[in-house]
Amino acid sequence: MIPPVVRVSRLAVGPSGAMAGERAIPEETPVAIVHNGSTYAVMMATPGDLEDFGYGFSLTEGVIGQLSDVETVETLEFDHEDGVVGVEIRLWINAERAGQMVARRRQIAGPTGCGLCGVESLELAVKPARAVGEGRRFTAADVSRAIAALPPAQTLNHQTRAVHAAAFWEPGAGLVAVREDVGRHNALDKLVGHLLREGHAAGGGIVLLTSRVSIEMVQKTAMLGASVLVAVSAPTALAVRTAEAAGITLAAIARDDGFEVFTHPHRIALDGAEKERAAHVG
Q: Which listed residue (12, 76, 85, 114) is catalytic?
């Protein structure tokens, strides 16, 4: 098994001179998502929680719609002559869903092979996110508690200070799951896959991100079915428009002293002092 963290030699240089030593850094590995024997995509990812990654990526890409669409899954490692170790996540999709998958592959075969190659590629890149259900409401204190719980749970980041995290938080339960990866999209896909495999509905909790919020993060959150997304960093303008259209409450720039709500604020209940401040700003 490929370790997710590797210790390497390094030379630390500072005002007082140079000092030899070691540093823990995250591993980055090519990971192929293979559906029924055909490679769908190859991603660079941290080699951990890879079955979660396979399920989550397949769901957020629309290849599967539910857990039962996958009949079996296996993860295989391959050594290449140049020393690079690669991984294949092989998912076998049932016959009914596989027929839909073949039609979809025919539709996206051009765009996936040649980057931005025309109007169809651009439309696929900015496709609307799936509309989410109403979900539940949270207090501002809930959001603050959720964000505060995330840093202590980032075990890989404690070692490397170089990976992203995606987590799911619920009132009463706290952090249900945390997944980390060198890629922010991968971390979210791993979280989605974990919740899917556990049969854990997302409408009653908050998706947490340590990264900025781009359109893909909103699209993936929508595919999960979560109605509230909170991030430490800022969103893009397109992400805000996409969250608005999908019905997702998007809060970002979440810090110890507060956060900013960009869309559908009705799901976050404010106390009296917060309401007064909001009215003053308005």
A: 114
Rounded to 5 degrees, what are φ and ψ at 212?
-70, 165
Percent of the chain with pLDDT over 70: 88
Please indicate whether residue 114 is annotated as part of the active site. Answer: yes
Q: In this model, does residue 188 exceed pLDDT 70?
A: yes
What range does the domain containing 205 cover?
Answer: 138-281
Would you tell me how many other CB atoms lie within 10 Å of the CB of residue 248?
27
CATH number for the domain that contains residue 226: 3.40.140.10
Are 277 and 206 within one domain?
Answer: yes
How many Å apart are CA 5 and CA 196, to the nearest integer?
Answer: 26
**pLDDT per residue over 72-121, tens digit each?**
999 999 987 777 789 999 999 999 999 887 655 544 433 333 444 444 56
Residues 108 and 182 in one domain: no
pLDDT score recorded for residue 126 = 80
* Global confidence as pTM: 0.91
- In a shared domain, residues 109 and 182: no
